[in-house]
Amino acid sequence: MKTWQFDYQLPPERIAQVPAEPRDSSRLLVLHRTDGQLEHRRFTDLSSYLRPGDLLVLNNTRVIPARLVGRKTTGGQVELLLLEPQPEHTWRALVRGHRVREGTEVHLLDAAQEPCGVSARITAVEEGGTRLVHFDRPIGDWLTDVGQVPLPPYIHHYAGDPERYQTVFAQRAGSSAAPTAGLHFTPDLLLSLHSGGVQISYLTLHIGLDTFKPIEENDIGDHRIHTEWAELSAETANQINQTRLAGGRIIAVGTTVVRTLEAAYHRGQPQHGACGWRTVSAFSGRTDLYITPGFAFGVVDALITNFHLPRSTLIVLVAAFAGIDTIRQAYAEAILHDYRFYSFGDAMLIL
Fold it and tell me: Which fold has domain 3-63+161-350?
């Protein structure tokens, strides 16, 4: 399948630079897969589409202050974007700077651009340009004071509250980017949904910066997807199985939740429930599940998601769930009606 099929032209002014206030005031494009019908609503209308007994599954990852600034011993500035922890105070990272080679020493700077007493050394340059960076002490001792939350590259000069790039239910630190579909929820909305009989559960997938990387190959099948760490607890897995047994729907909040749920389903042992369907089992580990059109979804019944970048694995996943032509028509409708796109943008509910 060709990558151009997942491309579209977006006017730059449609890229949201600030989040909606309040969170749940964002717009909601409701797409019905059965007939392609579209409805223009607000996120606060979500309860109109969820039923008692449905299970809403959210990603409780928290974005870490993964952007670090430092200076080489020669004085040149270096920027580090932490991607993934490695053993012994080492992280895989993206590095910006001139001649940052293996063996380069970097002295980190605080918010006042003064040395904070933490040093790092580049221990390896990997294929693809990432580097392994060893710190002279555990990052938990200083990261919150020194690091900054890394906003996506298409958000320019945002100076608002960094917590607006966190979900209200973020708990488990480890992501380099936010699970943006969850940014629309407020505590009051979650409480209202729960009071109406909608069940709520959580899982974790720590998102890497590769989530913004476009597919550069001509065929989507030639693309190598990044791997990410995910965890689905036994409690959540049991709640999913019980919901399906009772006839409720599994509503995934975001593509990260879809990947985690479907990874758990497809990697699990072939155990079957009382109605003959395969059950979901708990798991913890890395996943590189790449969902493309033709994928057999085993768990997810509905999806809440934002509007994604063209030629990205995220729009490919959404097209796999709803159909390529259906998604292309929905995106065209969203652009025509001035929806806001990407991380701080509006949402779509696919039923």
Answer: QueA-like (3.40.1780)
- CB neighbours of residue 287 within 10 Å: 19
Residue 12, SS3?
A: helix
Is the model more confident about 304 or about 110?
A: 304
**β-sheet bridge partners, residue 348:** 29, 305
67-146: CATH class: mainly beta
Whether the pTM exceeds 0.70: the reply is: yes
Q: What are phi and psi of 224, to 5 degrees?
A: -105, 115
DSSP code for 210: G
Strands (E), 147-282: 172-175, 199-205, 228-232, 250-253
Per-residue pLDDT reduced to its tens digit, 247-301 = 999 999 999 999 999 999 988 655 555 455 678 999 999 999 999 999 999 999 9
| Residues listed for the chain | 351
Q: Where in the chain is the domain with CATH 2.40.10.240?
A: 67-146
